[in-house]
Amino acid sequence: MNKISRKGFLKIAAAAAMSGVTAGALAACNAAKDSAAASGAVSAPAGSYIPGTYEGTAEGISSTVKVTMTFSDSAVTDVVVDTSGETASYGAAAADQLKQQLLASANGEIDGVSGSTVTSDAVMKAAKSCFAQAKGEATVSSVQLPTGDENDWLGKEPDIDEAAITETIDTDIVIVGAGNGGMFAAAYAAANGLNFRVIEQNGNVQDTRHWYGAIDSSAAKEAGAPATDKAKLLSEISRYASGKCDQRVVKTWINESAAMHDFMKSILEDKLGWECEFTAGDEAKWPDENAEHNTDYLFPVQEHNYMASERASGLARNEALLQYIQELGYDVDFKTSLAKLEKDADGRITGIIAQSTEDDHFIRYNANDGVLLACGGFPGNPYMMEQLDPLGTSVTTACSYSPADKGYGIRAAVWAGANLDKEAAPMLFDRGIVAPGVDGGYVESDSAFGGKAFPGTIRQYNPGTQPFLKVNRNGERFANESSPYNDIVYAAAHQPGRVYAQIHDDNFVEDVKRFHTIGCSAQTRNLGEDYIRGQMDNAEKEGCFFKADTLEELADKLGFTGEAKDTFLATVDRYNELYDQQNDEDFGKPSYRLSAIRKAPFYGCWLGASLLCTEQGIAINEKGQALDTENKPMPGLYVTGDMSGSFFANNYPCLMAGVAMGRTLTFAMKAIKQMAGLE
Fold it and tell me: What is the 3 state secondary structure string of 349-382?
């Protein structure tokens, strides 16, 4: 970003006042003829506006949102809201409602649409820019912080002139991000009466990842779960990372996650009366038969969630934690985004400079004890994805949960001298359903951030995780389908288009019960036939799922032709033969995971990876301190959540349900303890 100076601000203001047309950092506008007055539009006195058409933009959850407004001298006569790059079933679908709200607004203030808060806020910001332009006012529209580019994901640290910093806040601890890690850290800080501030770039706390892992917790003991072999667990997590982790960091989670759960319990159970759902026994592990042909993985009994209580209360966990800190006299500074870290001459991180996402003024937060970054990874940033994880990018067809996370916290930390993990670690689930002919990887998108987006329109097709027959575009089976979620999508990296088709018959309900998958994949089994058919029906409406009376018809619908169709039919015959033998001679899938494909109707779809989040982050030590490029602790800087590193490499151990979130919450509490001198 170019240096923002006071002189520059004055130049912008003068230009806008003289012409009514913004320049440089201001949104573009194009004069146009008045259109007919829109129904429901709010009138103002004649001469209130400079007639014309004006455009405003703002960053939404996954794209640049654009609002175009046409004004007469006294009213808004037309509104066009472009949210086409937002999540299809949420932000993109809200465009018409948001348009009507703007037509009834006198200044751009709107209520927004439930479930599309981020998109609504972006539309409101863009509309306010249009109103300001129509009034001939100087507006500093979205001063864009550096985004990187297709050749340099990092970009240059912004140089922000002191004159542009209009507010200073002194505190002891600054927490950046009001997601899972940030809100838990805030709750722990509030419980201990600490002096802290939380900032969040959006207008609300972020989505709750409900399941979290804790080892030998009070919930586990109450359930009678056996004590965890901690040494074996440490070894297993290291194996998943091919040894490319810091085992001391892993041990912090293993040894301190029980205390993390106890603190969570003290709020959610002791104060709110919620009940913890603890996954134990057979539900927490693969059946013993799996060890016949697969690696005998270790699955610690560790998964906790409060989902039933959340639904009953109407509050997600992060919302409950927000309520908790508010009752103790704290709050979150919403619509406030990290711009850069600040450090003194000795290299200590002393605070941050933040930017208001409402009016773009800059705020300095001085942090006496330290800064905790909990800003998420980079699944919504194509520059970082392609340059830091080309393999994961190539097999992905949908961005599932974190399209708003564009890695700015990671970039800010690297600018300050932090060390980024050298190995990619995406969390990939085998649920990225797409239409026939769609390849894995990005497609061009004019409205999405960086001009690229993943092609899938469904967040996750959960039945895709079931170990049904899977074939490539040549109609060939290519891997053991009974494996951790990401194994099949990585295997598909070696197949045409980097996608694969999943095939099953009408016995799928009984098959799913027998498969007994674990982790979040168990939802497919536990929620039953109505849930599965609902997923199938929704995918069919999107043109991504197919039903046929014969296998030949199914092959046609899936796009198999010629030799590929013949191979596909032969592959199904071979798979039925293996089922009859109860012995997978070809790929070694356990017999209880085989299924016949004989009972009509027959079903199929094409799948790639759905990207939940990235786990490649800033290297930390066992205390949660960020490490510099020489692997030395950076005084005053702590990191947790998806933007923290040293724990995962290559992939995520997705059959250990809740490890990532357990780590996030444990290190959030650890960081606060360290900064406040509580241990």
Answer: EEEEEEEECCCCCEEEEEEEEEEEECCCCCCCCH
Contacts of 11 (CB under 8 A, 6+ apart): none
Token readout for 174 is 């600054």
The Cα 295–Cα 399 span in angstroms is 29
- Residue by residue, DSSP assigns 44-108 as --TTSS--EEEEEEEE-SSBEEEEEEEE-SSBEEEEEEE-TTS-TTTTGGGHHHHHHHHHT-SSS
Strands 332-334 and 362-373: unpaired
- Residue 221: pLDDT above 50? yes
Which stretch of 81-95, 173-187, 398-412 has the lowest confidence by average pLDDT? 81-95
Q: For residue 43, what are the contacts with CB-CB under 8 A and spacing of at least 6?
A: 74, 75
C-alpha dihedral over 121, 123, 129, 132, to 10 degrees? -90
The pair of three-digit structure tokens given for residue 576, joined into one six-digit string? 């039925």
Residue 562, SS3 per DSSP: helix
Are 232 and 285 in contact, with CB atoms under 8 Å apart? Answer: no
Element (H, E) at 340: strand 336-343
Tokens matching residue 3 = 């240096």
Question: Is residue 666 packed enough to be buried (19+ CB in 10 Å), middle (13-18) or exposed (0-12)?
Answer: buried
Q: Which amino acid is at 35?
A: S
Sequence spans of domains, the chain: 6-134, 428-612
φ and ψ at residue 651, rounded to 5 degrees:
-160, -175
The pLDDT of residue 309: 97
Gap between the Cα atoms of 338 and 354, Å rounded? 4
Q: Is 76 left (phi over 0), alpha (psi -120 to 50) or beta?
A: beta
d(CA 249, CA 666): 11
Over residues 308-360, the pLDDT tens digits come to 999 999 999 999 999 999 999 999 999 999 999 999 999 999 999 999 988 77
Q: 40: burial class by Cβ within 10 Å (0-12, 13-18, 19+)?
A: exposed
Q: How far apart are CA 4 and CA 26, in angstroms?
A: 13
CA 129/CA 108 separation, integer angstroms? 8
Q: How far is CA 654 from CA 39, 68, 254, 421, 513, in A?
A: 52, 44, 16, 20, 20
The token pair at 96 is: 């018409």
Rounded to whole angstroms, the Cα distance separating 433 from 34 reads 45
Contact 505, 600 (CB under 8 A): yes
Alpha-carbon distance of 366 to 346, in angstroms, equals: 16
- pTM for this model (two decimals): 0.83
The answer to whether residues 215 and 230 touch, using CB atoms and an 8 Å cutoff, is yes
- Beta carbons within 8 Å of 59's beta carbon, 6+ residues apart: 65, 122, 142, 449
**C-beta of residue 599 within 8 angstroms of C-beta of residue 506:** yes
- Token pair listed for 603: 């079903």
> CB of 602 within 8 A of CB of 550?
yes
Please, what's the largest Cα pairwise distance for the chain? 84
Under 8 Å between Cβ of 140 and 359: yes
Q: What are the tens digits of pLDDT across the range 596-616?
A: 999 999 999 999 999 999 999
**CATH number of the domain located at residue range(s) 428-612 in this protein:** 3.90.700.10
